[in-house]
Design goal:
Number of strands: 22
Mean pLDDT: 90
Distance between the termini: 61 Å
Radius of gyration: 28 Å
Number of domains: 5
Largest sheet: 7 strands, parallel
Shape: globular
CATH superfamily of the largest domain: P-loop containing nucleotide triphosphate hydrolases
Low-confidence stretches: none
Oligomer: single chain
CATH class of the largest domain: Alpha Beta
Structural class: alpha/beta
Length: about 625
């Protein structure tokens, strides 16, 4: 049996599919040949299969590096449900949990180890990685390694050091959904690819119709639209508060809707996501936290209420529509005030250097870190409490912390919703002796053993509410049982908590020693502005095909889609694309040299006058040609 046939058998056994998508197959062949590989796959393209299947077919372990802890947990849960041995290691774990997890990866025949990028610099990883039989390193969200990318994370810059630990022969698979040609080259450079090797599917989505709608009353537009069109959809907004408000407005208008954001607890988020995936409700109103793990093919539309920060973000989020290949719509709403608000966000996103230093000092005081201490220590961090205590702007404080992260002083994780975990410290024989000697605890221990597996070899998530329902006891009694077993050294019990984490990657410095590079600050701000301006150009353009603009941004050749709002407007002229473009180029060439009245312009064009008049009217309607007070036509560049 050749390798690809083996991969297909695994695909059918675990995922129920009989064949790969074309790019999946190309990536698998490349990995099988031992090549470093960069795979550019669109959202929903099945990225995870390209490293999970080689891991299952190999004798060794696949290390998966991802910055999204929630995604890491989600994938590990799914793999374990499929009876695949997978492990996750991230900053929310205790030192003992991490130690046991690494032991299992070295000795326990695990197939996949998911790890957050900041963990790969820890001494414990460096020590244990050398003892692991690693067959592949997969880098998810690989654009995070590039300072030209829209979500740069400094911790990604250390991934290439893995080569020194594992040796040159372990291939690296880098994966991302969106990357410009510049970012593609940067990824391969930073990961020290042994050879250039990029495999990509086209970014073109022929079934997706891109629309931009200039509307003053967005509530009315959305309600009117959803009452006319059928199907499931996502409405993306920037603020958590707005998700609830819009969802409630839609429900009042007899539209089935719910809301979602990262501030909700994990159980509620999962319930809402699963309910929407099942078609109840029809609409989910969400921040960009909604997207991880979405596997719903029949999304008919994605509407953006606010303007995203970058084309990459917009393309990835709108790409969640129409994965079933049927016609779907990506709609961007805006009004003039949205353009101003988007530009105003820049100042909040890039606080002054002195302000960033103030935040650093306040943070160190808040966490009670003396000067010269704190390096590599993980701290629970409540942003809301922090900004409330010091009366700070949430946005400016958060973005100051992100800039300190860029300067490599600290790491700030997303908010974690860590469940309670337990691990049996005693052997099965010693546990049995304890049960015999402690009859009052016997029933509860049996409940634990019936409810969960693997507790003797690793920390296992437990749910006190579920244990309470199964036993008929209160949650408080369950908690006391767990604490008592922990105090008797039968188990290690870590109660669940919901918190973000801060890891100081350097010891605390005094203000004079804290260096925030003005050049770096300016450079990062300019790159952000460049990406935002490209997005604003997409929103405000009325003369270029929407799909073509998106494809051009990612360096892919494009033709007019014929379906977007711009193309539909041009289609009404009853001109072919070739005719329209020829006339437009002629008009532009003349007016760029000299402004003139319409009759004189027509005399200078070597084309059918009726067709030229149609194009001139269209260009006037879309503000590409303006008229001065003397009725001269001016090209609006």
């Amino acid at each position: 049996m050749n390798r690809l046939d083996e991969y297909k058998k695994i695909l059918t056994r675990y995922w129920g599919y009989t064949s790969f998508r074309p790019l999946q197959e190309e990536i698998l062949k490349s990995i099988d040949e031992g090549k470093d590989t960069l795979g550019l796959m669109p959202t929903g393209g099945g990225k995870s299969i390209t490293f999970q299947i080689p891991a299952l077919a190999s004798d060794g372990l696949c290390i998966v590096i991802t910055p999204l802890i929630a995604l890491m947990k989600d994938q590990v849960d799914k793999l374990r449900h499929m009876e695949v041995r997978a492990m996750a290691i991230h900053s929310g774990m205790t030192r003992e949990e991490i130690d046991i997890a690494f032991d299992n990866c070295v000795y326990g025949d695990y197939k996949l180890l998911y790890i957050s990028p900041e963990r790969i610099r820890s001494w414990i990883f460096e020590k244990r990685a050398a003892a692991m039989n690693v067959s592949l390193v997969a880098v998810d969200e690989a654009h995070c390694i590039s300072q030209w990318g829209y979500d740069f994370r400094p911790s990604y810059l250390y991934i290439a050091d893995i080569r020194k630990l594992l040796g040159e022969n372990v291939p690296i698979l880098a994966l991302t959904a969106t990357a410009t040609s510049r970012v593609v080259e940067d990824i391969m450079d930073k990961l020290e690819f042994r050879q250039r090797n990029v495999l990509k599917s086209g970014f073109e989505r022929k079934n997706l119709v891109y629309l931009v709608r200039k509307v003053e009353d967005k509530n009315k537009y959305i309600l009117d639209t959803l009452q006319k069109v059928q199907g499931s959809g996502i409405i993306y907004v920037r603020s958590r508060k707005k998700t609830r408000e819009i969802a409630q407005f839609l429900v009042a208008g007899k539209i089935s809707a719910d809301y979602y954001h990262a501030g909700l607890n994990r159980e509620l988020r999962e319930r809402k996501q699963n309910a929407w995936a099942a078609g109840k409700p029809r609409i989910i109103v969400a921040t960009n936290a909604f997207g991880m793990g979405i596997d719903k093919a029949n999304v008919r539309f994605v509407i953006h209420w606010d303007i995203p920060d970058s084309v990459e973000s917009y393309f990835q989020e709108s790409g969640r529509a129409g994965r079933d290949g049927k016609k779907a719509w990506a709609v961007q709403l805006y009004y003039e005030s949205d353009i101003d608000r988007a530009k105003e966000r820049v100042n909040a996103k890039f606080p002054a250097v002195d302000y960033i230093k103030n935040i650093y000092e306040l943070l160190c005081n808040y966490l009670q870190i003396p000067i010269g201490s704190g390096k590599n220590i993980v701290y629970d961090f409540n942003l809301a409490e922090f900004v409330s205590k010091y009366r700070l702007s949430v946005t400016q404080a958060y973005n100051s912390l992100k800039f300190l992260e860029r300067e490599k002083y600290l790491e700030l994780t997303e908010e974690l919703n860590n469940p309670s975990r337990i691990h049996f410290k005693v052997s099965r024989d010693d546990l049995y002796k304890f049960q015999v000697a402690n009859a009052a605890m016997d029933g509860f221990i049996k409940l634990l053993l019936r409810s969960y597996t693997g507790m003797f070899t690793e920390y296992v998530p437990v749910n006190e509410e579920i244990l309470a329902k199964k036993s008929g006891l209160s949650r408080d009694v369950i908690y006391k049982f767990l604490v008592k077993l922990s105090s008797r050294d039968i188990i290690n019990y870590i109660p669940g908590k919901k918190t973000a984490l801060i890891i100081f990657t350097e010891e605390r410095l005094d203000r004079k020693s804290l260096y925030i590079s003005p050049e770096n600050h300016k450079d990062v701000k300019e790159k952000y502005l460049d990406r935002l301006n490209e997005m604003l150009k997409y929103v405000t353009s009325q003369t270029r095909c929407r799909a073509s603009m998106l494809l051009d941004y990612f360096g892919q050749e494009s033709v007019r889609c014929g379906m977007c709002d711009v193309c539909m407007s041009r289609n009404e002229l009853d001109l072919s694309k070739y005719e329209f473009d020829q006339i437009l180029d002629g008009i532009k060439e003349v007016l760029m040299k000299e402004e003139m009245p319409a009759d004189r312009l027509l005399s200078k064009l070597d084309t059918d006058e009726e067709k030229a008049i149609k194009v001139i009217r269209w260009l006037l309607d879309h503000d590409k040609i303006l008229k001065d007070d003397k009725q001269n036509l001016i090209w609006n560049s």
